[in-house]
């Protein structure tokens, strides 16, 4: 079957992955409905963005109210808008970066690009003209722009990223929880810094809890030790919270599990719960101090829709909902229920299904390969037939529900997963 319409779809919607693409028409809470009236649990929270659930009238009202009084109010060429100032102040308070600055954009990819540019300009403004290299980890994911794809260095993109190879140096993948694995990573980081030369390295970028090939939760001291080593050599730490952030992992930001704060923190998705395209890069006071508001040391970085007034209003209201409804706590409570259910399910298939990994409402399950069969994709198809939409990559199944999910809805989703696993692995 061909695509539903001429939009250039993501490859996971290709016919071999989804023989009959679902055309979604409406959504409410944790549920989606297609144009035939079939209901699905949103087991991917709309690509990780839908933190506060679908169909929130207060978010539509926030957008309407701001659009009615001034939709865009572009903060460029001597102009600004007050709602972006208030949102920036709120993000600085939430991240512990009082005295810092915020650069707004419209997607997670742009936020990470902004972090790269800020890091490079930070060193340039301080006279470190040779610091042009950014360290990243193998198998990571930081966006869809040329630079963010090059940072990840994933095999499917490398053939057209060669011109940026000199800008990015990749380390091994973020290690799992064992302290010994963390020590090995730290040694690899130390030797890489020595080999490349600390005077040439501007920053290191990583997701606190990476997910691309299955969630990896490092040792509780891992990121603290990484940041200490980076700072010994004047290297900035960029924490990519685009997917991790706004309660998904059971803390407002995933780095809080590890007691660290990035010098630069990128965020998107949950910032507006997917109701408006908005992202941000938060910079510490120390980073901000290297820039002037105007003149040669200013950050010349802007976009037509950066700090869009309506988007900022939606983001402000989203944060209100997260706080007022204690959604971070709910992520911990319901996440424990999800984890217990997935662990019991994996135990039914020893040797074929690995124990799940995750925190809060952020989980993956890895299935062992079975010849040429893509078992996770087969489970994905069974889930959809039973009324749940989620995602698979190779033999990794992704499962993250909106943070408004109830215990009953968690149980409903676990029943669908259990039936789907049994249908494929019986």
TrEMBL record:
CDD domains: OAT_like. InterPro entries: Aminotrans_3, Aminotrans_3_PPA_site, PyrdxlP-dep_Trfase, PyrdxlP-dep_Trfase_major, PyrdxlP-dep_Trfase_small. The gene is yhxA. It holds the Pfam family Aminotran_3. One of its GO terms (molecular function) is pyridoxal phosphate binding. It comes from Acrocarpospora macrocephala. Keywords: Aminotransferase, Pyridoxal phosphate, Transferase. SUPFAM superfamilies: PLP-dependent transferases. Belongs to the class-III pyridoxal-phosphate-dependent aminotransferase family. This is Putative aminotransferase YhxA. The lineage of its organism: Bacteria, Bacillati, Actinomycetota, Actinomycetes, Streptosporangiales. The keyword Glycosyltransferase does not apply.
């Amino acid at each position: 079957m061909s695509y539903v319409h001429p939009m250039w779809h993501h490859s996971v919607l290709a016919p071999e992955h989804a023989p009959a693409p679902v055309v979604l028409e409406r959504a409410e809470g944790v549920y989606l409905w297609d144009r035939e009236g079939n209901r699905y649990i949103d087991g991917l929270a709309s690509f990780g963005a839908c933190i506060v659930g679908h169909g929130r009238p207060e978010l539509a009202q926030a957008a309407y109210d701001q659009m009615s009084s001034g939709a865009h109010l572009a903060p460029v060429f001597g102009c600004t808008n007050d709602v972006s100032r208030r949102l920036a102040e709120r993000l600085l308070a939430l991240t512990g970066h009082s005295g810092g600055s915020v650069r707004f954009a419209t997607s997670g990819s742009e936020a990470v690009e902004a972090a790269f540019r800020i890091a490079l300009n930070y060193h340039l403004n301080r006279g470190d003209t040779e610091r042009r290299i950014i360290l990243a980890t193998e198998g990571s994911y930081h966006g869809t722009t040329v630079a963010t794809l090059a940072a990840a260095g994933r095999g499917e993109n490398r053939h057209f990223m060669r011109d940026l190879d000199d800008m990015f140096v990749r380390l091994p993948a973020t290690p799992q929880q064992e302290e010994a694995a963390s020590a090995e990573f730290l040694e690899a980081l130390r030797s890489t810094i020595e080999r490349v030369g600390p005077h040439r390295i501007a920053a290191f970028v990583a997701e606190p809890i990476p997910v691309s090939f299955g969630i990896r939760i490092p040792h509780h001291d891992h990121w603290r030790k990484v940041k200490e080593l980076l700072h010994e050599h004047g290297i900035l730490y960029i924490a990519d919270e685009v997917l991790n952030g706004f309660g998904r992992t059971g803390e407002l930001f995933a780095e809080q599990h590890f007691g660290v704060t990035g010098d630069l923190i990128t965020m998107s998705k949950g910032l507006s719960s997917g109701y408006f395209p908005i992202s941000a890069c938060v910079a510490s006071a120390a980073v901000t101090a290297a820039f002037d508001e105007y003149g040669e040391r200013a950050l010349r970085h802007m976009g037509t829709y950066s700090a869009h007034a309506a988007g900022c209003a939606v983001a402000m209201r989203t944060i209100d909902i997260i706080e007022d409804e204690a959604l971070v706590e709910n992520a911990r409570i319901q996440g424990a229920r999800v984890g217990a259910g997935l662990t019991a399910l994996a135990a039914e298939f020893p040797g074929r299904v690995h124990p799940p990994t995750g925190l809060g409402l952020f989980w993956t399950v890895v299935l062992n390969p079975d010849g040429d069969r893509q078992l996770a994709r087969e489970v994905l198809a069974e889930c959809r037939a039973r009324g749940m939409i989620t995602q698979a990559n190779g033999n990794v199944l992704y499962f993250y529900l909106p943070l408004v999910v109830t215990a009953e809805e968690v149980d409903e989703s676990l029943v669908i997963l259990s039936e789907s696993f049994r249908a494929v692995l019986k």
